[in-house]
Amino acid sequence: MTTPAVSPDLDALRTDIAKFLREIILENYHFSSGQKETYEITPIYERYGHLASKDLAGNILERWDAAITPDEKKSCKHFFHIAFFGYLGNLTKEISEAMMKRQNEMKITLDGEEIPYQGIFPRLMNEPDRDKRKAIDDLTVELEIELNEFRTDAWRVTNEVFQDFGFENYKAGCRKAFEIDYEWLAGELRKFLDETEDEYVGEFDKLSIERLGYPIGEAHKYDLGYLMRGEKFDHLFQRDGMVDKALKFASEMGMPIDGVEAITLDVEDREKKRPRAFCSPAQPGREVYVCLRPMGGMTDYSTFLHELGHAYHFAHTDPTLPSELIMLGDSATSEIYAFNFQYLMTDPDWLKSYIGIDDPSEIIESERIRKLYFLRRYASKFLYEIELLSDYNMDGKSHLYCKYLDAGLKAKHRPENWLYDLDDELYSAGYLRAWIFEVQLREYLKNEYGVDWWRNPKAGERLREFWSTGRMYMPEELCEMIIGEKISLEPIKRELKGK
Predict the structure, then answer these.
(1) pLDDT digits (tens, 9 = 90+) for 20-37
(2) Judging by DSSP bridges, how do beta strands 263-266 and 113-116 pair with one another?
(3) pTM, to two decimals
């Protein structure tokens, strides 16, 4: 790769970075919330081409390698995220737009009923008839094969860019960009999978036989959403009043939602609105959207709390900090706070106080099992991704998806989903490290502010301090700063064992 000699003025780029990211995030929000029929990012990239160029990415990488002070290194690292991945996004923007357009058009027909692509997973999750779940999955496979053509094109371009920048493989490029120790994480996750194998099989054989009528080893991926659904608790988590109930604790911590001007709750029911809640931080500290389409049920509450955690983090980010430090960086940082709110659903006193459940023990046990499932799923997914991306040849490797996911979850997966389940930037590592540190953070909050920290204004003040730094720090750094320890899986292992 040839790097131009002229280095950019980083101060001059910050305003444009904030504008560029705001426009990209709003485009995603408006499309995914059903307010916009088409997904159009090409005009945005055309307006901000200087932020998404090979020249800028090369210059920032060169400056980063030459940086001396910790602050300069951190700033260059975050600038590299937008320059490098923005350049990559610029090269793949037409593919992304075409794929989004096609997804919006796709549908399957089951017994005369049309199901849009975005509605397939919610339908599988709520379908008690195995034959219908299988029929839906069979029909969906054809859609995924078609979409894999777009995904394959995008990954081909991605690999070419990583090679052009001299990275040994995709994992090595992400290792440079995010400074995550993937080898340590992979080793810890392999041990975690081994240590929880017997418990998982025992728990999920029991659950699967009860819910599906057969052990987990006979289940398929299309069974898993329904298996984890937990609809027997839905009557305790009504759609009406969900927002008020879920937000009451924030008021007691001194952060009522109507006092957080940056947050806009989008709860309108639009036909093409994504069924799952999401958060769009268009301008951290100033403009944050939480989009949800409440349907009722425990899953709704859990998802809303998760996105609310993101929203409170971004809404309380200090907007005067350099834009690259609050808008860019390790995805795990905000996931920590999202999980911190989400796992209030495992606190018996919280469930009694705000949801009005007298005996939440069965719900808490259900959430423990769900967490074991998701940790094993993402551990397996991460191990699959780092093997798949260990070189630039992805041909003939779809079997690796089944190898890792079948082993981790014991259910059978289709190789056709190998690219559907492959996220950019090794995002699975962010989820996993956030899950790990969140337990340590929660223990800290309990020790400092009591077991009911979630109603303590002093805990709210402390959280606002953490949130104010945006994405400046990684989980590993936050753990050292807040607790004085290294990030560790031991607390989450103890939690999963009920200790």
Answers:
(1) 999 999 999 999 999 998
(2) unpaired
(3) 0.93
